[in-house]
Design brief:
Number of strands: 23
Number of domains: 4
CATH class of the largest domain: Alpha Beta
Strand content: 5-15%
CATH superfamily of the largest domain: P-loop containing nucleotide triphosphate hydrolases
Shape: globular
Distance between the termini: 85 Å
Helix content: 40-55%
Strand order of the largest sheet: 5-6-4-7-8-3-11
Structural class: alpha/beta
Length: about 750
């Protein structure tokens, strides 16, 4: 046996406690290389994936590391596969140093980022951003001992070294995204091969989903049955025609599509029809739905499960109950290897800019997919430039087809705004047709009339609004902030429902389900809500009131009015000027933009073309569409072309879609109480923290400090806070962030 045959990568214990036959290092390198090559081939980078796979654990081919691997437990340290823990001997940087020296013209640096970070995460190049010893520049300078790596491993890497990247990188995010996608291919390949050796039972659960062709057949059968049993209404007839347009457009070549359909027009099933037909036409691997709110995800995922089968849909979001996920779906959420993924905007976009291996692992499976951005108007404006630039690159180089789906189409197209270039998306094709066809569609689905206030300067008071709302047995009123929601709700009769983000996810879901049931049965139901009901929540009221806001918000609120078109006459959407302005920031700027548009007295302020004008003006008003400078951090051409200086880790830390001025606390709503007690007694477990996501409320830092000061919250586990008493969580309105006394709660 030669020396290379004695080198090992991993050792596993059997169930009986004995050691399994060690996995040879060269076998692990070759297996990982084969998988990474296949994954990276989807974006014309197979040779780069192979080289990364062969080099990633080359540092384990040193005698020092082999001794370290075997010394504990008499043979193997079970944590030796992990990088960067105290007392661990590094190995990843040695492979990175090796490819730096083997690859000419600086291309080794591209691989070095991936290899150095395959456990610890993609690094920054320079220590200048505060990453210090974690930076790639520092690690490479300190790395010693690559001459000790087994020669046969070095030969394998030399024989596989790639020449040039698959295309010439353009300024901007091009190079950084390619490195991150290559990194994803390597990380997933490494995880999968290690898992196949360490846990064959878990590995066997992966894959074995239906093909896209089979899913399309299931979908078509479902639609045939659905149409057969549907009421013969005008709305259903229009929905069928929209679906037919989607099926027809699916034959068009890959690229960027918009699907502009009024609320209630059946976008969910129509977009799935497009995605499945298009994926079959171009032999794509999967469909990924990106949805802003978990409440919509749960609703849409149910539709998808009914259409193609519960076992074919993987939900990847924080509100998913551990008991609702099968072992197979849980492991598929790690790398998105299922045919239909439903995820949140936060999960999707933050992963595209992430540095951690666990977040990036799935990214290569975005290649050769259909991505549907549902309720696309809610893409965060503060990060709009890096998001749109990345989506364009996915279409240009990674075989992605993008669908921008919404009733209020944002102005994402490349254009000039007030003389300045807006570098949006190129060549967007509208599925419904030209402006005339879109206008006809919207007119045919007009199910409500909007009543705007004559004077935008005169404010209503909550008492008057409450009195107006009480005239209706079924009415929804949407306001722009939580304080207004609570104030107005307090003036309404008992039994009025309240919806806001001060209620935990489980609480909101239950209230929405109750509201839907009452609407279905024709029972009286009044609701005061923040804008969380506006995007995609299937409520159908005869009357909707909306506090003055952005044009898109008004239209989305209107989409909850006479949704199914069952009223003998059009429903009513009443816009009023509330006692206070919307919160500072984008909500207030959106309201101001709407006011500017209404000054011109357009015949129909909610016609589709008005949204281009609205969003163009709104984007121009926003201080920055790249608030954290992500484009600069990830552009090697802007920083130092020769060094390929990219700040992956710093960019990942700055790209946070959830406001960091907020803190999450756990609330003892129903099962939340026992789960908090469990956390207190046993400490944090992954499954427990996942269940507790349903019982979490996000509050601003100043509110958190107030609750802490009055001893209303306590640290149940390091860094995790919970409400002390259920007395401060109302079953009607959720968390009481301000001192509150309700005399009726204390009547004996």
């Amino acid at each position: 046996m030669n020396r290379c045959d004695k080198l090992i990568a991993h050792v596993a214990r059997r169930d009986d406690g004995s050691w399994a036959t060690p996995q040879r290092l060269l076998d692990h390198l070759k297996n990982t290389a084969t998988l990474a090559e296949r994954f990276a081939a989807k974006f014309a980078s197979g040779s780069w994936g192979k080289a990364a796979g062969l080099a990633h654990d080359a540092g384990k081919g040193r005698e020092q590391w082999q001794k370290y691997l075997k010394k504990k437990s008499g043979y193997f340290d079970e944590e030796a596969h992990l990088e960067g823990k105290p007392g661990k001997i590094p190995h990843a940087i040695h492979g990175a140093k090796l490819v730096e020296e083997l690859c000419t013209k600086g291309w080794g640096r591209l691989l070095a980022y991936c290899i150095a970070g395959h456990h610890a995460g993609l690094p920054d190049w320079s220590p200048a951003n505060g990453t210090g010893p974690a930076s790639l520049q520092y690690q490479l300078a300190q790395c010693k001992g690559i001459d000790e790596i087994e020669e046969s491993i070095i030969r394998e890497i030399k024989d596989a070294k790639p020449a040039m990247p698959p295309w010439k990188f353009a300024p901007g995010l091009d190079a950084a995204l390619w490195i991150r996608m290559l990194y994803s291919a390597l990380v997933d390949a490494d995880f999968l091969d290690t898992e196949a050796y360490m846990d064959a039972e878990r590995a066997a659960l992966r894959g074995n989903y239906c093909s896209i062709v089979e899913l399309l057949e299931r979908f078509n059968n479902y639609i045939a049955d659905l149409d057969k049993g549907a009421e013969n209404t005008k709305v259903n007839e229009i929905r069928r025609s929209i679906r037919a347009k989607c099926v027809k457009a699916a034959a068009d070549k890959q690229g960027i599509f918009s699907l502009t359909v009024p609320t209630g027009g059946g976008k969910t099933l129509s977009s799935l029809a497009f995605a499945l037909e298009h994926a079959v036409k171009y032999n794509l691997d999967r469909i990924i739905y990106v949805i802003p709110y978990t409440s919509i995800i749960e609703q849409n995922a149910d539709v998808f499960r009914n259409a193609i089968g519960a076992d074919q849909v993987v939900e990847h979001h924080s509100n998913l109950e551990e008991s609702d996920a099968t072992p197979k779906s849980r492991i598929s959420s790690e790398n998105w290897d299922a045919p239909l993924i439903v995820t949140t905007s936060v999960q999707f976009f933050e992963s595209l800019f992430a540095a951690k291996s666990s977040r990036c692992r799935k990214l290569h499976n975005i290649a050769r997919s259909v991505i549907v951005l549902d309720e696309a108007q809610l893409v965060p404006a503060d990060f709009l430039f890096p998001i749109l630039a990345t989506m364009q690159l996915l279409v240009d180089h990674y075989g992605v087809t993008l669908v921008i789906s919404t009733a209020t189409q944002p102005a994402f197209n490349e254009r000039q705004i007030n003389g300045n270039k807006f570098p949006g998306l190129k060549g967007v094709k509208e599925i419904i047709g030209d402006d005339k066809e879109i206008n006809l569609l919207y007119k045919s689905l007009e199910r409500y009339r909007v009543e705007f206030p004559q004077d935008l300067r005169t404010r209503s008071n909550w008492q008057d609004i409450a009195e107006e709302l009480q005239k209706f047995e079924q009415v929804l009123c949407v306001v722009s902030d939580r304080k207004s929601c609570r104030e107005l709700h307090s003036l309404m009769p008992r039994g009025t429902y309240h919806l806001s983000s001060l209620m935990c996810g489980q609480h909101r879901s239950e209230v929405i389900a109750t509201i839907k049931e009452k609407l279905k049965n024709g029972e009286p139901v009044r609701v005061i809500s923040t804008q969380l009901v506006e995007a995609g929540v299937d409520l159908d009221f005869p009357v909707v009131y909306r506090a003055f806001a952005g044009l898109d918000s008004i239209a989305q609120a209107g989409g909850r009015c006479n949704r199914e078109g069952r009223l003998p006459e059009k429903g009513r959407v009443v816009v009023f000027v509330p006692p206070r302005q919307p919160p500072m920031g984008i909500l207030r700027k959106a309201a101001e933009t709407t006011a500017n548009i209404l000054v011109t007295r357009p015949e129909n302020p909610l016609q589709p073309g008005m949204f281009t004008q609205f969003f163009s003006e709104l984007y121009w008003k926003i201080n920055s569409l790249d608030r954290e400078g992500i484009m600069s951090l990830l552009d090697p051409l802007e920083n130092d072309k020769n060094e390929c200086s990219i700040s992956f880790r710093t960019a990942a830390e700055k790209f946070k879609l959830i406001d960091e001025s907020t803190r999450a606390i756990l609330v003892p709503y129903q099962e939340g109480q026992s789960l908090i007690e469990m956390l207190k007694a046993n400490g944090p477990d992954r499954w427990l923290l996942r269940k507790l996501q349903r019982y979490t409320v996000n509050i601003y830092n100043n509110e958190f400090e107030q609750l802490l000061k009055r001893e209303s919250i306590f640290e149940v586990s390091p860094g995790i806070y919970a409400l002390v008493s259920s007395a401060e969580y109302s079953n009607d309105t959720g968390l009481m962030v301000e001192p509150f006394f309700d005399p009726d709660r204390f009547v004996l």
